[in-house]
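Here comes my example:
=====
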Amino acid sequence: MPAVIPTPAARLKTEPIKSPRRPGYAPLDLEALYHAHQLAAARWSADGRFIYLETNITGRFNIWRMPAGGGWPEQLTVSDERTRLEGPSPDSRWLIYTQDRAGNEKPNIFLLPAAGGRPRNLTRTEGVGYRSIRWSPDGRFVAFAAERDGPGQYAVYLADVVTAEITRVAGTEHGQCASLRWSPDGRRLALTRTHDFLHSGITLLDLDTRQEKVLIPLDGEHITTVVDWLPDGRHLVINSNANGADVEAVGLLDTTTGWVDWLTLGEWESYALAVSRTRPEFVYVRNVAGSHQAFIRHPDGPETPIPLPEGVCLSAEFHPSGRRLLLLYASADSPPEAWRLDRPTGRIYRLTRSLVGGLSRRSFVRPQLAVYRSFDGTPIAAFVYVPPNIRPDGSHPAVVYAHGGPTWQHQNGWFPDIQFLVSHGFIVIAPNFRGSTGFGRPFQEANRRDLGGGDLRDVVAALDFLRASGYVNPKAVAVMGASYGGYLTLMALAKYPDLWAAGVAIVPFANWFTEFENEDPTLQAYDRVMMGDPVIDAELWRDRSPIFFADRIKAPLLLLAGANDIRCPVEETRQIAEAVRSAGGVVEVKIYANEGHGFSRRENRIDAFRRVVDFLRRHVPGVRP
């Protein structure tokens, strides 16, 4: 019997799932649900008078600005392309945003005059990725990591916003640059370095001498990232699992001595989101099986809970004065919203209202946390969404919902697709299988050289939990997921063909060999760590590629993909569709010409999920109209 993987989920208490009583609960309207505003980012203006928002109020993600006290925002950018908020300049003159083309994730950096006017393209490149775009403290330069030297080679650059001159200040000798932060005096950059875009260490770059000092070495086993500097200019707040306990926690790194004080080490993972520019304090969250508890913490120990409802804290930023806090928070029954904490009074205010069309928090279901044992006895934590007002009579359809990543976690946040399924009678279980974040390093590393193996068996084990609940019809269970979750969906259909009524794979991959050949170089580095070499480990790669077992797939399959996907190229969808058809299987395909890895345009999101529900309604027994 394989050894049980250590995880704090072993100490969770779970109760049998129950259907809540909810008079008046009704199927959701798809149009209203996807017209809810999606708030992707929120930032203070440099003077603290305004808040910049990245949101899709119009159906496209653009940049908006609203008063710090709330109110209807003003739209600043107008584009059909995906526009991402980066931040305002410290002198309040400029706002930086990025914009790619049709979801290709290769954007340019734009400068927008804060007082109004036309944006200026600062970088003017094609097919180049940019990361961690940061203003210098004086507002003269923008630092960023970019693959301007070649695909997948993320060196460090400075752009002069006056002359538009771009200077390469550090290469990749110490690894690729995953993120960077300016020191308060503007003379140094703290860099997160990586070889595989998973494991990481920290270096310090002196901009005068161009010398780079290693503070936390890369070891190929641990993850350490820079959050930001304390105002003293000596200490860095970091997130790391290189602490002996193998649990992600917040540390205070002395850049002079290299010493780390661990500040939030505990049973559950924790990580910092923001650091104050005016005093030594930071915001961090404790991630308890996918639900967050948020705190303001001083390095010397005192901490204050932030009174937010149950859910997940997506971002935080201190007001320039330090007296307020801007938070982006979501929950199962609420899309991400901007909240403002006034620290002198301790009062918290919601600044945005994203639900439309008569929807309210009562329209949605909160999940129940459950734990079940997998094939080797390892406890797997999962969120279970149960429709209100149903009986445990074994008649109800269900969906096993596999998350992407795989180095990711299904958290207690906003999933409109799940809510729509639940409103139409599906019980949905979303397991955090081995390899997920949030449960310690041993659990996260447990699928290394085993992708599509133990994690797939964890997903399949969710079926036993559903059967034991008394609610689910075992012949009415579908499997569904996006990205790596789409891959696990294909693997589940191919390796366990008799268990499923249907499968839905969104932006999936199906063939490790062609995926590796055609994907973005950053993911190639990740895949080598997680699956080895395509020649040396060819037997493993073949066994874990559903394309070679497509003739075993019995359940009807729906495939949705973006034509410009650099992570799971669209050819992966095309080849598995052809293989299933050639074997006599039932497969439906939709490829969106103007999307990449996921769908950002509102009309595409609505169309995609309408296809999902119509497909499941035709192939899974017991679906509500």
